[in-house]
Structures are given as structure tokens and as C-alpha cells.
Amino acid sequence: QVQLVESGGGDVRPGGSVRLSCAVSGNTFTIGDMGWYRQLPGKQREFLATITDKLFTNYANSMKGRVTISRDNAKNTMYLQVNSVVPEDTAVYYCFAYERTTPYWGQGISVTVSS
User: 31-52 b/e with 16+ CB inside 10 Å = b?
Assistant: First the structure.
């Protein structure tokens, strides 16, 4: 069993940055790939980034250059930083992790970009 909890969301002004955390608990020994999705209001959930247990990263083309994914395996925590945010970044952000071949999801965390 694996549990994921996102934190760090809230309000941010356009042009600023937001840093989200995803804390993993449970059977962390066999956690492999991790990553982030988001769901804009009224839109489908979209892929943002992944990071492997060996720290190889992959990003959605639409987000390259302003998104950074990282993880600290010693702390069982993954991070997502989004720079130069715009109002269209307003969404619920979800983290995921694979335990062996089983995916687990966090509950989601809201980010609102407004002036």
C-alpha cells in the first residue's frame, strides 16, 4: 500500500513560481517512477512530468523550460516547480507513483494564478 499527499498549493501571482511537494508513505521501498499531472477547470487531465528512481526526467513539450521535477528518495518526497506562471496554470495538480507496476495517486492540490 502507498499513500501520496500533495502540499504547497494555493494562490500565486502571474510571473511568479509555485513549488509543490508530494509526500509518499507506506511501502516506499519498491517505489519506481513518479510524476505529476494537472487538470484545468473543465479540461481533461494532462501529463506534466515524470522522474524515475534513477532521477531520469521527462517533461511534457508544452511545459519544457518552466517546469522542474525532482525527488528526494531519502525523504520520500517528490517536487514540482512551475516558473513564470500564467492564469492558465490554474488547475488541480496530482502526483502519482508506481509501486512495482501499480500506480497510486494523490488527492490533488489546487493552484490558482491571479493578480
Answer: beebbbbbeeeeeeeebbbbbe
What per-residue confidence (pLDDT) applies to 63? 85
Cα of 102 vs its chain's centroid, Å = 18
Cβ-contact 20, 4 below 8 angstroms: no
DSSP-based helix, strand, coil % in the chain, nearest 5: 10, 60, 35
Q: Which residue in 108, 66, 68, 111 sits closest to 90, CA to CA? A: 111
- In contact, 9 and 20? CB cutoff 8 Å: yes
pLDDT (tens digit, 9 = 90+) per residue, 56-102? 999 999 887 899 999 998 999 999 999 999 999 999 999 999 999 99
